[in-house]
Please model this.
Amino acid sequence: MPAAGELSRQREPQELIAAAAGQLHPTTAFYCVDDYEQSVPFYLRRTCTLVGYRGELDFGLNQEPSRWIPDLGTFAASWRAETDALAVIRPESYARLQRMGLPMRVIYTGSSLVAVVRQ
Model:
């Protein structure tokens, strides 16, 4: 049933937002890793630092280059330096970060996104 699969994908960002909202504080660093689900930063009322993804945000990233991290290795170093952080990650990138031994705790798992907090 294609319609049922589409409905679950539409619900996924809402569930992720609900899980993430309680984890964010004014000083929490927020990352979108290897993807940018437009509704998540909007509904969380937060600007994210993009990791590995530029897409339609390329112009803005040229204006504000500190909002972009080029790859998972550089992100891993930034994540380790954080004390309070949340990241929304594609599942395959999450698996790579797990293998790197990053200190993170899963707060949400969906078919196309995983949300983690700094542990």
In short: The chain has one domain: 2-118. DSSP finds five helices and six strands in the chain.
